[in-house]
């Protein structure tokens, strides 16, 4: 494979997102398989940011099922409305959790995770949630509106992979 993602890690977080997103878009245009593309997106995010865990939960019937991810072992199934992921699915909203201990019903897959952001990936036409993108950090208060803005753009790229 001759596709390489090159990022100067001394850039600001926002600049890294701005450089990464077109490269990710190009990367996934070279492959038609959903799982292969989600796996590479998770890898690129994990490699370029100081995240503990990055992965996808895919809507299958009435629950979220663990998809491609990078990071520690994770819970495999999450019910609608449960935890941060299930709530993001139910509400069709991005959720930033500065302190997971303060989120009622947070599902602790890893005790190392202290804060997280979850972005729903919504079908462009029927507006159903297809998956959620979950990103966790070992640090409190790690995610902000910049992560939300660019991960939502990434979610739009991911929505078109179906
Ligand atoms: N914390 C999530 C569960 C998934 S793991 O963090 C990978 C939640 O509450 O939905």
Brief digest:
The chain has 162 residues and is an alpha+beta fold. 35% of the residues lie in helices and 24% in strands.
Can you walk through the features of this model?
The chain is α+β, with helices and mostly antiparallel strands. The chain has one domain: Beta-Lactamase, CATH 3.30.450. It has helices at 13-29, 34-48, 83-91, 145-159; strands at 53-60, 63-70, 77-79, 95-97, 115-122, 129-137. Strand 2 (63-70) and strand 3 form a beta hairpin. Methionine sulfoxide is lined by residues 53, 74-75, 78, 83-85, 106-107, 109, 113, 116, 134, 136.
Set out the fold topology.
Elements: H1 13-29, H2 34-48, E1 53-60, E2 63-70, E3 77-79, H3 83-91, E4 95-97, E5 115-122, E6 129-137, H4 145-159
Antiparallel strand pairs: 1-2, 1-6, 2-3, 4-5, 5-6
Helix pairs in contact: 1-2, 1-4
Methionine sulfoxide binds near residues 85, 106, 107, 109 and 116.
């Amino acid at each position: 494979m001759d596709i390489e993602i090159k990022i100067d890690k001394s850039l600001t977080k926002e600049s890294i997102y701005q450089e990464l997103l077109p490269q990710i878009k190009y990367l996934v245009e070279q492959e038609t398989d959903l799982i292969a593309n989600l796996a590479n997106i998770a890898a690129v995010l994990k490699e370029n940011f100081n995240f503990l865990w990055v992965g996808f939960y895919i809507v299958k019937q009435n629950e979220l099922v663990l998809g491609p991810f990078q990071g520690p072992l994770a819970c495999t199934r999450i019910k609608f409305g449960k935890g941060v992921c299930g709530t993001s699915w139910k509400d069709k909203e991005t959720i930033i959790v500065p302190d997971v201990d303060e989120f009622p019903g947070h599902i602790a897959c890893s005790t190392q995770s202290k804060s997280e952001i979850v972005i729903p990936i919504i079908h462009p036409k029927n507006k159903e949630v297809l998956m959620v993108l979950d990103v966790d950090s070992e640090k409190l208060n790690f995610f902000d509106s910049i992560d939300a803005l660019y991960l939502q753009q990434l979610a739009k790229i991911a929505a078109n992979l179906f």
